[in-house]
Amino acid sequence: MSTDVTAKSPAPAPPGRDGPEAGGGLLRLMLDGLRRNMRQYGMLIALGLIVVLFAAWSGGDLLLPRNVSNLVLQNSYVLLLAIGMMLVIIAGHIDLSVGSLTAFVGAMSAVLMVDHDVAWPLAVVLCLALGALAGSVQGFFVAYLGIPSFIVTLAGMLLFRGLTEIVLKGQTLGPLPRDLQKIANGFLPEVGPNTNYHNLTLLLGFALIAFVVHQEVRDRRRQREFALDVAPARLFALKLVALVSAVLVVTLLLASYKGAPIVLLILGVLVVGFGYVMRNAVIGRHIYAIGGNLPAAKLSGVKDRKVTFLVFLNMGMLAALAGLVYAARFNAASPKAGLGFELEAIAASFIGGASMSGGVGTVLGAIIGGLVLGVLNNGMNLVGIGTDWQQVIKGLVLLAAVGFDVWNKRRVGS
Amino acid sequence: MAGPVLEMRSIVKTFPGVKALSDVTLTVRQGEVHAICGENGAGKSTLMKVVSGVHPHGSYEGEILFESTPCRFKDIRASEQQGIVIIHQELALVPYLSLAENIFLGNEHARRGLIDWNETLRHASELLRRVGLREHPETRVADIGVGKQQLVEIAKALSKRVKLLILDEPTAALNDEDSGKLLDLILQLKDQGITSIIISHKLNEIRRVADSVTILRDGRTIETLDVKAAGTTEDRIISGMVGRDLEHRFPERTEHHPQAGAAPALEIRNWTVHHPIDQQRKVVDDVSLEVRRGEIVGIAGLMGAGRTELAMSVFGRSYGRYAGGTVLRDGREVRTRSVPEAVGHGIAYVTEDRKHYGLNLIDTINRNVSLSALGKVARRGVVDEHEERRVAEGYRTSMNIKAPTVFEPVGRLSGGNQQKVVLSKWLFAGPEVLILDEPTRGIDVGAKYEIYTVIDRLAAEGKAVVFISSELPELLGMCDRVYTMAAGRLTGEFSRAEATQEALMRQMTKDKEVTG
């Protein structure tokens, strides 16, 4: 959101000077900005390249409106988990239990709604509470009893998987209420005149564009007010154009099919919300602080135990949400649901810039990391690469992403 | 005089955006102890990393001659093969391995991949004897003190047939007694023909062991002096380091007016703390003291006297197991059972170990400064980043923190500037009582002076300051009153007029039997 990174050193070329070398100057500005912000932009560019690669390889199938829609739906649960996982990793911990917890909550939701005819809104609330409870029990062990999170959540991983099978008696349980399915699989309602596009999606897209532009401009103006260095006008304009066109393309793609999936809206709200909290809220700061240097944070008066506890509670709740979405999407709870999701979420976080030692990472990074994995999955399916090779390739991508990050950090750092 | 063993000519080393060494020439003679001093950021450590191959050949410009042959080390191993061994400030020992295993780590006595334990232990005991360490070679490193660990590092260096030993601030973490032993050892090694380079901030140490001293400033060699020559005084070295005549090492004292009538700002009564693991042991034993507004009160003591333990346990029981005692603020008893409670009562504790307990090194200046009082730049739980930035910029200017912007990661700053960030963080919390634990440890003379000025200003503003330090001149120069501690007990109290180094030291070395 902010351009504060560009304030690190004086602008390499005088902004707003016109002349024969103006084009070259802009390119230089871009490259310079890029070089200094490798960490932030590196993965975004990698994502772009992967999209282009598979779009070309699949003969454009990847970017068919139907497929883009599908991509969002397919990856929504892992992205939900990645948001929470990123917070856990920033705080200096890990959560291995989320895949099993996803399955367990899915199972409980099916038991509630199918076996006991509980109304679905009530079931959703109960399930989220269950997730929060599971997360907070693990958080209690980690934060207040000081047991390493790896061990606590490894136990949780076994425990919740076992409970899932017990609850479901090894069977698949369904179907689920139609309204709930809609949330996981459905799209925003159709309104207004026929424009060949999905009106509400267009409207939302335009609102988002207006919001982004407004935020960026306001940020820039406030930086000016505080007499801080701002990015050169050309670079700023370029950034705005890139942002706006990215949002526009996705909006048009979605709007020319059935519109924006409801899950996308939920995800969007969560990303913006958690991104804001991590960036601007006191608790977000405290999460970074305890991950970066726990003893220093303690001596600064940060209530480290409470913060750790809340991070795990939050993870449990997001796992519950993922479990609900997963069950609703497949219209049944299965004992094998969510297998390996914890690893996908962890991989997404690390691809998105988290550090094993904590204290580093952004929510947006986790989403980008998750999308890298998602597009890879989807793209490789489209071009017919088998699941065996898919795993090999995903493993290599994780290694390459983290390797690049480490290399880049060393290059800048020393 | 013997010829040069090491010659470095016109060394230039550039990091992205910074010129760390811009023209350094250094000549070290065979068999001498050569001191290198300079302010933090002067380039001392970088220079030593160039010599030892941490920065490989090709990453710097200039020429290095060792025993008259040009050197092109590509890593540390290459320089060690030539007999150049560097001992870093942060010790590089594995705590859970034995002394013998540590000494030969990477260099094991082994045949076909299997360790020859007899030879290992025999050789290790020999080396340990040589450094004067009476410990069994199978003792774990974790079980011996820092002073002894430093000796193990030297034994390790000796095992590599060292010709040139480089020590980067070897006594920074040691108490006076251990420092003395270490310096004696350096002199002994000198008699055995081992040349040493010692980086140090402590001028008395330099005078004691060094033959010559090279002063660096801003990445350049300023001069090399013969320590034994008549003109080489401490003031001469200091002025070379800071590039100006430093008449006074302490700021001109503002007249403090401790308000005698009012209740003390901070009073500690009968404070007792037990060791966190060994709960029979009293680390702080029945300590009572008081500090008034506008007063700077020193606490002197040797390592292990319980000064830090006292301070940290008062500050939200951050150390050990509380076993009794009360804290009073302005005459009223207050609860300081957690850090937030202590901060809430206007107490701040500036740690002696800024890297581990003071700062989040991977985070930026502004975020470190605001951490202890985020509420002040936040509304309804949301941080106002612009306001935070303004606050941090304010401290960057007023504390003279040398960094391009407040978005610089704190880990990249020099020690003195890091210390200023820690101080800023606690000033921002707006405390009435500041407990400063070794606020000038490991920082250069110029930065020390700046920090003294800040402390003086705080007292003039009516804050109560507790000043814990191992450097007696500093306490004598700054404090209105000084308490001494030994073995967890308060052993003396001196007014500014009564306090002399000798008098303080006598009380600091008092044993329990004498007082009890």
UniProtKB/TrEMBL annotation, chain A:
One of its GO terms (cellular component) is plasma membrane. It comes from the Bacteria. It is found in: Cell membrane. The keyword tRNA processing does not apply. Keywords: Cell inner membrane, Cell membrane, Membrane, Sugar transport, Transmembrane, Transmembrane helix, Transport. Residues 1-21 are annotated as: Disordered. GO terms for molecular function: transmembrane transporter activity. The chain crosses the membrane at residues 41-64, 76-98, 118-134, 141-160, 197-214, 235-254, 260-278, 307-328, 348-376. It is a multi-pass membrane protein. Part of the binding-protein-dependent transport system for D-xylose. Probably responsible for the translocation of the substrate across the membrane. NCBIfam families: GguB. This is Xylose transport system permease protein XylH. It comes from Streptomyces tagetis. The lineage of its organism: Bacteria, Bacillati, Actinomycetota, Actinomycetes, Kitasatosporales.
Automatic annotation (TrEMBL), chain B:
Pfam families: ABC_tran. It is found in: Cell membrane. Its main location: membrane. Residues 6-243, 268-512 form the ABC transporter domain. One of its GO terms (cellular component) is plasma membrane. It comes from the Bacteria. SUPFAM superfamilies: P-loop containing nucleoside triphosphate hydrolases. CDD domains: ABC_Carb_Monos_I, ABC_Carb_Monos_II. Transmembrane segments: none annotated. It is a peripheral membrane protein. Keywords: ATP-binding, Cell membrane, Membrane, Nucleotide-binding, Repeat, Sugar transport, Translocase, Transport. One of its GO terms (molecular function) is ATP hydrolysis activity. The keyword Cell membrane applies. NCBIfam families: GguA (NF040905). This is Sugar ABC transporter ATP-binding protein.
